[in-house]
Amino acid sequence: MQNERTPVVSVIMGVYNQYSEVQLLAAVNSILIQTFKDFEFIIYDDGSEAEPAALLQNLMTIDSRIRVIRCEENHGLAFSLNRCINEAKGKYLARMDADDFSLPNRLEEEVKFLDEHPEYDWVGCNAKIFEGKRIRGTRIMAEEPNKYNFLPFSPYIHPTVMFRRSLFETGSSYNVSQETLRCEDYELFMRLYQQGYRGYNLQKILFLYREDVDAYRRRTCKSRLREVSIRRKHFCKMGLPWKKRVLYIFRPIMSMLIPYP
Most buried in the list 32, 51, 252, 253, measured by CB within 10 Å? Predict the structure, then answer.
């Protein structure tokens, strides 16, 4: 039987209080209709309230590949993803979020790339940016990000990324701390880059990424200061020139005054 085999891909998704059943089902179904079928879908309920928790539990009746793990307390995205990784059986780990949409050939394209390019440790892709029912634009990421691509923001769209599972068997994991809150992926990618691991972005649009145009501007001062701290710590370790470090370290604070594109 399929659920007794080791899947090639483990799709991992941490969820907290996703009240929109429409968004949740759209995200989940976008995985279930993938052209690549050999996967398990691990969803971690990070202490959701009763109504959204029930929505998540009901997902297991839709497809036998879905497994929902629940925790009664909320611990944050980094903790959730680490739990998913610990439970995963797949050779590859594909990220997904509960309000985005993977185009049907996303998993197939990413598996093919990692199978054919052992020199890369993860792969992401480009995406259409949407809000509500409106496509707001296209996000084109650097194909082979170098250290300079980390200056403005993370050079990978987190929920588009597929990792090699072996990457997390060497001691790497998401950093569970207040310091990395809302910057979990950015901090992880910078840390992995320092350790010599490398990622790639397929120059194909395989994902629809939900982004509220005002979300970045609404970030709290505390959240921005945490990002400043992460940038200061890792930009130095990555050997970026000090003039560029100074310019970009304080970008989150400057963005409070300058409109974010």
Answer: 252
Q: Tell me the average pLDDT across 27-55.
A: 98
Do strands 122-131 and 199-210 pair parallel, antiparallel, or not at all (unpaired)?
Answer: parallel
CA distance 127 to 203: 9
Written as six digits, the tokens of 192 are: 């992995």
Between helix 221-237 and helix 184-194 the angle, nearest 10°, is 10
Q: What is the largest CA-CA distance in the chain?
A: 58
SS3 annotation, 28-66: HHHHHCCCCCCEEEEEEEECCCHHHHHHHHHHHHCCCCE
58: CB partners within 8 A, 6+ apart:
none
Contact predicate 100/142, CB 8 Å: no
pLDDT confidence of residue 246:
92
